[in-house]
Design a protein that fits this description.
The structure holds 2 protein chains of 2 kinds. By secondary structure, chain A is mainly alpha-helical. In chain A, 75% of the residues lie in helices and 0% in strands. The radius of gyration of chain B is 20 Å and the shape is elongated.
Chain lengths: 223, 254
């Protein structure tokens, strides 16, 4: 059995989705943790130090390439799987099974992922692109991201878009987190119920932390 | 429960053959007993059709006692109809009320092409079994109980997986037309027992390869299959199949 055969089989493709998904989940923890520094209420001092460590240092910048690779793999594979799976039933049902047997968000990972992707494009255009282009895409001078957050999050539609993006991310994670572990073969009932608990908590807490950031700026909860 | 009779409207999928374009047709059946099974109600309808010169509706059925896995109707949006852990033949008309309209469709999946009307070709499942769902050694006569000690929990889990009757409701219910619940039941049933152990790697690799070749979709763990399965095959089996596949494929020496 060649590596190609492994990773192009139906289960192999899911392994790629699960692995990249868990990798992106780890990234979310780091991202949420660093950004939470805005709540130190020191006019962004602690936050900017964290941001500088991530943006002005070769190690995180090289890891960033890995992050984008994982992200692109997750997106491309996700779309391919969605299209392939859909093509397996050319004649559909007149009456849909619907929510009788499964949760709507577990059947809507393609849609939820698309919403997250749209949000991500907006998010990168807001912060990542202006900052990196100011750096000359290398390790040049960074912009003041704290001030940038203040400006961006004073616009109502941006704040609404961010909150909606976080809700989509929450539902995506509610299924994705546990599904990834299922794909990795966790069938032990004790461990799986633990993973389910952690997954649902993660899907609520992390997007909530992210959503609170634009809200905090918009409503002036931080200086 | 008190007996009652009902008149029903049936919206049934009619399709001449695999390549023909099918369509729904409305039928009316009257004076149906609440004690009848769903298939008996179809027998009444078919007699009616024969008498009026119309071709009877083709549907799969065999044992009519819920153990063979032949019956396969998608009734009002759910494989095998509204009851839980139930086959179409064991669905009884007391599940319905007078005046109801019931929509009956065949299993929908490209891997299960319609043969005629409500009958689909499920030989894809046979070919998956032929790819590895067996033990190659000649086992001879039944051995004494406990000649090979097996942990009780493993024996129970294996037996629960072996309950699968291969009806294909999991494929019909899955939005991806995935056969993973079926394949996982067959792989788990043998992987949990010492007799199945020597071939466990080649079995899972070959059965999954055949499953992909037959054109079933991949699993996204939605759980619709488990919810519809007449034998309540657990989704845990799919996770076990994933584990079996992961170990077998990553440790393969070829």
């Amino acid at each position: 059995m060649t590596w190609k055969q492994v990773f192009t089989s139906s289960i192999g493709k899911k392994l790629v989705m699960g692995f990249t998904g868990l990798f992106l989940i780890l990234f979310l923890i780091i991202h949420a943790g660093l950004n939470a520094c805005i709540w130190a209420n020191d006019n962004g001092k602690m936050f900017l130090e964290g941001a500088h460590f991530m943006g002005g240092n070769w190690v995180p910048r090289i890891l960033e390439i890995g992050l984008f690779a994982g992200l692109i793999l997750h997106i491309v594979q996700g779309y391919l799987l969605t299209v392939q799976n859909k093509s397996k039933r050319s004649v559909g049902y007149a009456v849909d099974y619907g929510n009788q047997g499964s949760k709507w968000y577990s059947r809507s990972m393609g849609l939820l992922g698309t919403l997250v992707l749209l949000f991500l494009i907006l998010h990168l255009a807001n912060f990542w692109v202006p900052n990196r282009s100011n750096q000359g895409w290398l390790l040049g001078e960074e912009i003041n991201l704290y001030e940038k957050m203040k400006t961006e999050f004073s616009v109502l539609w941006v704040v609404i878009a961010y909150v909606l993006g976080c809700i989509a991310l929450g539902y995506h994670l509610a299924h994705g987190f546990k599904s990834a572990f299922r794909t990795y073969g966790v069938h032990n009932k004790r461990y799986f119920s633990m993973i389910k608990g952690i997954g649902y908590s993660f899907a609520v807490i992390v997007p909530l932390i992210f959503a609170l950031m634009p809200l905090s700026f918009y409503f002036g909860w931080i200086e | 429960m008190e007996h009652y009779s009902m008149n029903l409207n049936l919206k049934v999928w009619r399709q001449k053959d695999t390549n023909a374009k099918g369509a729904f047709k409305m039928y009316r059946v009257e004076n149906i007993s609440s004690e009848m099974s769903f298939l008996e109600m179809f027998d009444v309808l078919n007699e009616q059709l024969v008498q009026t010169g119309e071709e009877p509706i083709v549907f799969d059925h065999d044992c009519r006692e819920g153990i063979c896995g032949a019956c396969s109707m998608y009734i009002n949006g759910k494989p095998h109809g509204p009851w839980q852990a139930n086959t179409t033949c064991q669905l009884h008309m007391r599940a319905f009320q007078d005046g109801d309209t019931i929509v009956v469709e065949p299993w929908r999946a490209d891997a299960f092409p319609v043969i005629k009307d409500l009958m689909v070709d499920r030989t894809a499942f046979d070919r998956i079994i032929q790819a590895g769902g067996y033990i190659s050694v000649n086992t001879g006569n039944a051995v004494d109980g406990n000649a090979i000690p097996i942990p009780k929990d493993d024996a129970d889990a294996s037996f629960a997986a072996a309950m699968c009757i291969g009806c294909g409701a999991c494929v019909a219910a899955c939005k991806n037309s995935s056969a993973m619940l079926f394949v996982s039941a067959k792989v788990s049933h043998l992987a949990l027992l010492p007799q199945g152990d020597p071939e466990r790697s080649s079995r899972v690799l070959n059965m999954v390869a055949q499953m992909d070749k037959e054109g079933f979709g991949s699993c996204t763990n939605t759980g619709a299959c488990e919810a519809t399965c007449p034998k309540e095959i657990s989704l845990d089996n799919i996770a076990r199949l994933n584990q079996e596949y992961l170990l077998a494929s990553l440790t393969s020496n070829k």
